[in-house]
Amino acid sequence: MRRHIPWIVTALALFGLVLPSAQTVISNNAADMANHIVMVADSPTPRTVTNLFTFNRGGTLAPFAVGNAGAVTVTNLDADLLDGLNSTRFVWAVVSTTSTGTQNDFAPGIASGQPTLIRANNASDLTVTGLSGGVDGQIVCWASIGAGNVILTHQTAGSSAANRFINYATCASPCGTPLAAGVGTACQQYDGTTARWRLTHHNQGQPITPTYNGANYTATSGTWTVDAGDVTTESYFLAGRMLTVTFYLVTTSTSATPVTLQINNGAWGGFTAAKAALNAIDLSDNGGGNIGGFANITAGLTLIGNTEFAASSPFAVAANTTNVLGQLTFEIQ
Fold first, then answer.
1. pTM for the structure as a whole
2. N or C: which end of the chain has fewer CB within 10 A?
3. Per residue, what are the HEC states of 254-298?
4. CATH of the domain at 221
């Protein structure tokens, strides 16, 4: 039987098709590739592509461009956030700051949209009222590594509205969400709808001991004198909206016979109580041995009252012989 194969090849050619064994060499003129098969997968001869080809997804931006042989990453892919771990949406930037004091609209060098770790290496306290340049969904985390505390304040007017923070604890300056020096951490995510940074994680790290101030200690009558050397422990720890205040005050003095000795919020971060709370504590009134007492606070107040169980028996006048030892946990605003 006579076979007429050439007419089949001619017919395929009329429709712009070629047999699998055919090959088309890629030239340096990309226009020559239009409407042509430029390479066949089962070619018996190895081919090396040396040209730069751009593949356009139909818009104004190219999803990628390959130009360098052996390149580990494709730059344009990174810019378009398509290649996973090497894109700016997945690779964390790390910036460091030594800023101290109050920083409004803080700009420590965060790239737009990129998740960022801020290493706060501040020598003294740093208070931040807002971060500039937030992009919807962007995550920023803080690591306190310096000698000073970091305080992130809630909705503070010092920063532009779109740069402010929404914290668990909603009181504004002087209180805020504290990160203890050298150990505290926090994370925030930008909410483009609300146009605020929302706190998503906070760990104070350890209790914070405020700078001593004798004015933090008062009495319902006369004076309660607590010298710096009388303060064995005075600290606070914030977890969510629950604040724990610990106090161990020894050899204090009273000038009259007050019913209640008071510790104001200058000794515990400047917070205000949201709800009432009470706890039993240990007292030593004028060296008379340990007696029962309680520490309490009322909603809306900034004073922790330390009172003997028998309110009709006030504290005696004492010269360096009254001790107040206890702890109180309560919800803050």
1. 0.75
2. N
3. ECCCCCEEEEEHHHCCCCCECCCEEEEEEEECCCCCEEEEEEEEC
4. 2.60.40
